[in-house]
Every structure is written in structure tokens, then in C-alpha cells.
Amino acid sequence: MAEKNQLDIANLRREYTQGGLRRKDLTDDPLVLFERWLEQAYEAKLADPTAMCVATVDSDGQPYQRIVLLKHYDKDGLIFYTNLSSRKAQHIAHNNKVSLLFPWYQLERQVCFLGEAEKLSPLKVIKYFQSRPKDSQIAAWVSRQSAKISARSLLENKFFELKQKFKNGEIPLPSFWGGYRVRFNSVEFWQGGTKRLHDRFLYQWQQDHWQIDRLAP
């Protein structure tokens, strides 16, 4: 059998031509610009425009990344929900500094938030949990997130069992399920540019205002 040629990834490239980002396009508050870009990602019909990569670090300094969905944002931070026994939750318990990256590469854009994660109040978690589809509520009970399992059938059987158990009643909030608010102090906006001269602007909180600097690409 002939050996398959390896894809030449070193020469995979294209020009970024969808537009630049200039200082006149910026807002005093990074959240205003973020909201504008998020709405444009939604209007462009990107798959999962609220998907963000959450980066954490374990006790040995090893970074980890995974995609989660943004569920709320305001001046106090960005919110996501997860299993509190998950690997990301264990990392946050040890080191609550996290990075959130929105990879809107179809629009040749990225937004990166840096900040500290804090647990949400039980009241806020319950309110969101009860708004989820019933199957999603049951799934929260089924999965011990990040734990090793021997087969998918274990999850499916447990899901069916709980679906029968809760079919006529309200599904309670699992004690091991919750959410985090990431209070951010740094936001970087990246817009692809021609000739690899990308536009990058960094917002950093300075006591009572946002300091804005252009970064070299």
C-alpha cells in the first residue's frame, strides 16, 4: 500500500481581507465593543457564537483548555456553568486566574479576556438550572465530568434511569453543579489584516479607567 503524503501544513495560509480595526472604531468600555462583535458573529450565522475557550492551570503549572458556552455577561464579568468536580473547577480552586478566548475566525477576529473566576451564588445557579431543557438538567446529574468511565453505555443507561425517575416531577439542582463569574481586568481585540499586519488593541483596567494600547501583530 502506498504511503499517504502528509498534508503540507507549513504552506497553508491565506490573506486576511475582511477589514481592519482602527482606533476610531474602539469604544471607551471594551464590553461595548465586545457586544458589537458578538452581535455581528450572531448575525453572520456563525456556529456557536457564544463558544469560548476557557484556559486554566493545574497545580503543576500545566495549562488546560476547553470550549464552554458563555451564558451571561455584564460589567461585573462573564458567566459560564459547569460541574464543580470537573477538572476546570479543580484548577480554579487552586488558581482562579483564567483566560477566555472567543475564536471568531470566520470573521478573522479573536477576543481574549483575562481575569479571576469566582463561584456564583446558589440562587443564581438554581435560576439558570431551572431554565435549561429537561434533558440538559438530567445530563448534569448523569456525568461526573472529567472522571474516567469504561463505556458510553453507562452514561446512556443512567440517563434513561433518571429520565424515568424525574418524568413527572421537577429535577433538583445537583449539589456538584454550579457556575463561575470571571471578573476581567484585561481584554484584547484581534482583527486579521493584509500582509499579516493584523490589528490588536489591548484594554487594561487602571484603577478607574481602561487604558487602551495598540499592540504589534
Defining key terms:
single chain; 217 residues; alpha+beta; Pnp Oxidase, Chain A; nine-stranded antiparallel sheet; 5 helices; 9 strands; pyridoxine biosynthesis; EC 1.4.3.5; pyridoxamine phosphate oxidase activity; flavoprotein; Pyridox_Oxase
Describe the structure.
With 217 residues, the protein is an alpha+beta fold. The chain has a domain at 19-130 and 176-214: Pnp Oxidase, Chain A. It has helices at 30-43, 87-94, 122-131, 134-142, 152-165; strands at residues 51-57, 63-69, 72-74, 77-83, 97-102, 109-119, 177-191, 199-206, 209-215. Strands 1, 2, 3, 4, 5, 6, 7, 8 and 9 form a nine-stranded antiparallel β-sheet that branches. A hairpin with a 5-residue loop joins strand 1 and strand 2 (63-69). Helix 4 (134-142) crosses helix 5 (152-165). The longest helix is centred in the first third of the chain and has 14 residues, at 30-43. It starts with 29 loop residues before the first helix and ends with a strand. The mean pLDDT is 94. Its EC number is 1.4.3.5. Catalyzes the oxidation of either pyridoxine 5'-phosphate (PNP) or pyridoxamine 5'-phosphate (PMP) into pyridoxal 5'-phosphate (PLP). It holds the Pfam family PNP_phzG_C. Residues 38-163 form the Pyridoxamine 5'-phosphate oxidase N-terminal domain. Its cofactor is FMN.
